[in-house]
C-alpha cells in the first residue's frame, strides 16, 4: 500500500511539473499577445511513457510543444516602413548570429539607410540588405523595392521545407535546424502589404481559458498529493504504535 501510494505521488508530481511547463507556455503566449509576428506555442500531446518491458518501468512525462504558424490578423498602420506578408513565407533577416526568419515587419532605417529590425537585424533582398537612399520608399505586392520610383532591390520572402524545423529565438525570430531547407516562393504564394503589420496569432480569451483549466488541475493534483501524504503518515504512525 505504501509503495503504491509513493508511485501515485511520483506520478502526481510529474503531472504537476508538466502542468507548470504548460502554464509557463500559456503565460508567454499571453505576454506576447501584442507582439508583431509572434507565433503561439501549443501542446500536441503529453502523456506518461513506459519502457517496453515486463516491469513497465517509467521513463518520464513527454510534453510535445509545437509552434502554431497560422497567420495573425493584418492591421493597417500607415507607416511605410511596416511590411506584412499575406500568405506563405518569411522575411530573411541578417543577424550577428546568422540568417534568421521572421513574420514581424515592424522595420526602421539605420544611419546608413538600411532597412532593419528594431534589434538591428538587416532585412535582406536579392541584392543584399535593402538600402533606402531617397525620399519615396515603396514595396510592391510581389516584393519589388522601389526608391523614388526606381527599382533597387527585390525583397526576399522565402518558405521552408518543414515548419517544424524552425526553432524559435526570442519573441518573433526563427532559425533553421540543420535538417531544414529554404524553399523559394513564387509571387503567387504571398503578397507584401506596405503600411500593414501582422499581429500575434494568440487568442487571448482562449489562452485565458486554458490557463484557468491548468490552474484548477494543478490545484487538484496538489490536494491529491497532500491526501496521499497524510494517509502514509497515518499508516506509519499506526505501524509504530503496533510494534511497541
N-C termini distance: 21 Å
Q: Count the beta strands.
A: 19
Largest sheet: 6 strands, antiparallel
Q: pLDDT below 50 for ≥5 consecutive residues: which ranges?
A: 1-8, 45-60
Going by helix content, strand content and strand pairing, the class is alpha+beta
Compute the CA-based radius of gyration.
26 Å
Estimate the strand proportion: 25-35%
- In percent, how helical is the residue content? 25-40%
Give the SSE string: HEEEEEEEEEEEEEEEEEEEH
Number of helices: 2
Query: What is the 3D form?
Result: elongated
Q: Provide the residue-averaged pLDDT.
A: 83
Tag the structure with descriptive keywords.
disordered N terminus; 19 strands; elongated; 244 residues; 6-stranded antiparallel sheet; alpha+beta; 3-stranded antiparallel sheet; 34% strand
